[in-house]
Design goal:
The protein is of the alpha+beta class. The protein has ten helices and 15 strands.
């Protein structure tokens, strides 16, 4: 019986990319795998046909010959061994083996030492603490070695024994015949859970786990200039490693509380200050609040509402040592809301002298700002 077109077998067109071919093969191989279809000869034949098709189309050289000459161009090259996979055997079959309990490649990776899990902890700091830096004591819970058994999991006075089923390797190998030939699979030893050792007398304190939940305190130095969302890593303070692996890390996530006066824009600080109509008109020397205390600043005559001036170097220091920001101050001219008759007459005379008309206005935008600032 003549062979089907390999592109038809995989259900793709001739313009399919290497990734498309791989994806199509994985999907169909899982569908027709013999372990999923025990005793089904038709599924077994389709699985064999899939492997033959992908062995050719998965190899750039063989694919080129097949596209040019058809089956004749790859005669004798299909259906045997794993030549042409370019070292991709683990990538192609790893998920299939995992599905059916083999885990030939990924289990080996998991059976060795593993780094412990990381711990994420959020801490809150004030605006000033973020600007100048601080030190916080954080409290949390994590797994740690059991004091009773010193982390062995075995009852004091006893010891672990080497698992006789895997000879202490933590994994069991077994051969499986497939249409591709004999494949040696590796799976975690079910008798010792991959530890290679068996605890016959578990520690009563940790129930044989070797780990107990403990309350921990560590001091965290928070550098000047941090902002919300920044993360401070503390190496080795996470969960303990598995099978001799290194411990995980502890990550402190910063959240900065809002300030009543200041807002932050990168390394710069922004604030709004209300001034009177007289100050704006005649000019004045006023005190401006900064994170480092009050400073004096002279406002020029005729300053308009919304004018912004800069206080150089009064911002926030860069946590990476890239200098220091500035403080920007926006002046808001307050419009008087309650005037005596005498004050009104004076303003009308002032307007008449300047040739202007005076109109009564409702509550202005600046009044609203004043309400916000005074709340």
């Amino acid at each position: 019986m003549s062979k089907r077109d390999f592109y038809e077998v995989l259900g793709v067109d001739r313009n399919a990319s290497a990734e498309d071919l791989k994806r199509a093969y994985r999907k169909l191989a899982m569908k027709y795998h013999p372990d999923r279809n025990p005793g089904d000869k038709e599924a077994e034949e389709k699985f064999k046909e899939l492997n033959e098709a992908y062995e050719v189309l998965g190899s750039p050289e063989k694919k080129q010959r097949y596209d040019q000459f058809g089956h004749a161009g790859v005669n004798g090259n299909g259906g045997g061994g794993f030549e042409g996979f370019g070292g991709g055997f683990e990538d192609i079959f790893g998920d299939i083996f995992d599905m059916f309990g083999g885990g030939g490649f990924s289990s080996r990776r998991r059976s060795g030492p593993q780094k412990g899990a990381d711990i994420k902890y959020e801490t809150t700091v004030t605006f000033e603490e973020a600007a100048f830096g601080t030190e916080k004591t954080v409290e949390f819970h994590r797994n740690d070695n059991c004091d009773k058994c010193e982390g062995t999991g075995a009852k004091p006075g006893t010891a672990k024994k080497t698992c006789v089923h895997c000879q202490g390797k933590g994994e069991i190998r077994y051969a499986q015949r497939t249409p591709l030939g004999q494949i040696v699979n590796v799976k975690t030893c079910p008798h010792c859970d991959g530890n290679g050792q068996i605890i016959e007398s578990p520690c009563p304190s940790c129930k044989g786990k070797g780990k107990v939940r403990k309350h921990k305190k560590i001091k965290v130095k928070i550098p000047a200039g941090v902002d919300t969302g920044m993360v401070i890593p503390i190496r080795g303070e996470g969960e303990p490693g598995v099978k001799g692996g290194p411990p995980g890390d502890f990550y402190v996530v910063i959240r900065v509380l809002p300030h009543k006066i200041f807002q932050r824009d990168g390394m710069d600080i922004i604030c709004e200050i209300p001034i009177t109509f007289v100050q704006a008109t005649l000019g004045d020397e006023m005190e401006v609040p900064t994170l480092e205390g009050k400073v004096k600043y002279k406002i020029a005559e005729g300053t308009q509402s919304g004018t912004v001036f800069r206080l150089k170097g009064k911002g926030i220091v860069s946590p990476r040592g890239h200098g220091k920001g500035d403080q920007y101050v926006k002046v808001i001219v307050e419009v008087p809301k309650k005037l005596s008759e005498k004050q009104k007459d004076i303003l009308k005379q002032f307007a008449a002298e300047g040739g202007e008309e005076v109109h009564e206005q409702r509550k202005s935008f600046f009044d609203k700002v004043k309400d916000v600032l005074s709340s």
